[in-house]
Q: What sequence folds into this?
């Protein structure tokens, strides 16, 4: 989606001035997927029977989608967003048909793709009562709603607000976010999968290796590669390939712990950093990832696209003296073993 839009009006800009410090210490822009927010937007789609659900934060005239299901978007200008009236008024707004609404009928997201015809949103507020974001749902078809819909929308909005006030990312990721400015974080962020990219993942792995050496903790490193990904792109096209990448990224994040790190290591390859786990636990997590992904094919108009993933594991056990480069080399060898075994499996380097 293009982020171009009309100039931000002064009243919206004033209402959208944030006090994020009172909400939490982290700037949410260019931060990775978190399952606690993904869970809410998944629930919203099922409970409210809508194709699109999102949790957003607003800052400096921009809207950041902390979690969004059913629509590939990362950020927008507030002036282009369907949420501008919610941000301006701080009130719940439900528009059954956007073409009948004075404020939304000329919005680019209504007039052009994805041509939203239904919108419902509720404000997310900080501890001082200022609107700092929204919980919203959209549909490409007009809808009729009742009081129960409005109540469920408000309840889900409160859930999202509570999570924003809850504890933040794990210490390593928090430290990286706090240390880096927004522009540098953007350079470490993969907008397609909403994960850290290779550069961000390497920084976090380096920090994890040094921490484990200092305190003699265990560390598991997994390299995961989507099987036959080139065939998916060749047969179904790159849009379906992108959908596969996003689905795999989301499933990995949903399977690991909140404190674990997931990054897009390159192309169709992912890196997963698991702190304080032994080999058995790491193997169990990796097998769960394989199993979950193999059970969730991508549905296209032509047919279902099966997905499997191969994983290689390298361990830093207590007492080991192993560098980041050595861990990556071992995990890469283990991934090669999984591919040789026939794919859709997990291997250790020593196998």
A:
């Amino acid at each position: 989606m293009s982020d171009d839009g009309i100039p931000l009006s002064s009243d919206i800009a004033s209402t959208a001035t944030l006090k994020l410090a009172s909400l939490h210490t982290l700037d949410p822009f260019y931060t990775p997927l978190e399952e606690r927010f993904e869970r809410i937007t998944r629930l919203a789609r099922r409970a409210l029977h809508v194709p699109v659900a999102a949790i957003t934060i607003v800052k400096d005239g921009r809207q950041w989608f902390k979690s969004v299901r059913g629509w590939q978007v990362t950020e927008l200008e507030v002036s282009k967003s369907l949420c501008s009236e919610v941000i301006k008024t701080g009130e719940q707004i439900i528009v059954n048909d956007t073409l009948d609404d004075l404020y939304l009928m000329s919005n680019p997201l209504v007039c052009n793709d994805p041509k939203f015809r239904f919108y419902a949103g509720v404000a997310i507020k900080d501890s001082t009562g200022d609107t700092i974001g929204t919980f919203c749902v959209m549909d490409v078809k007009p809808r009729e709603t009742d009081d129960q819909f409005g109540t469920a929308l408000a309840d889900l909005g409160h859930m999202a607000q509570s999570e924003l006030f809850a504890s933040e990312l794990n210490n390593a990721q928090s430290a990286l976010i706090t240390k880096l400015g927004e522009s540098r974080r953007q350079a470490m962020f993969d907008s397609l999968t909403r994960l850290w990219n290779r550069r961000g993942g390497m920084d976090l792995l380096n920090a994890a290796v040094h921490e484990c050496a200092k305190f003699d903790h265990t560390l598991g490193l997994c390299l995961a590669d989507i099987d036959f990904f080139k065939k998916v792109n060749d047969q179904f096209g790159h849009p379906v390939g992108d959908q596969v990448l996003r689905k795999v990224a989301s499933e990995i994040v949903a399977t690991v712990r909140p404190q674990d790190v997931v990054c897009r290591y390159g192309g169709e390859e992912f890196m997963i950093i698991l702190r304080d786990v032994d080999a058995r636990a790491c193997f169990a997590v990796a097998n769960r990832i394989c199993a979950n992904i193999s059970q969730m094919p991508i549905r296209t108009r032509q047919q279902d696209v099966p997905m499997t993933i191969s994983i290689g594991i390298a361990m830093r056990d207590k007492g080991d003296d192993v560098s980041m480069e050595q861990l990556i080399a071992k995990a890469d060898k283990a991934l090669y073993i999984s591919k040789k075994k026939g794919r859709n499996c997990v291997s250790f380097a020593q196998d």
